[in-house]
Amino acid sequence: MIALQGQGMTVGLMGSQLLAKCIGEQLKGTAGSKRQHQLAALSGLPAKFHSQLGGLVDYPWTVSVGPDAQYVLFLL
Question: What's the whole-model pTM score?
Fold first, then answer.
């Protein structure tokens, strides 16, 4: 269960772990290669990482902004 408040640090940590995993997958098989080859292997990393990160932060984001949305609807 994710805490309603104070979840930013947890989600940030999970995001950094996901980034490390994505980098590792992208660089797999390039150990000992020249830096230029390793950098080329990272092409497509931002799109892959951000698509997976979206799934990771979706639930915590929804939980944390839900009460705010209800308050705004109450004022209307």
Answer: 0.70
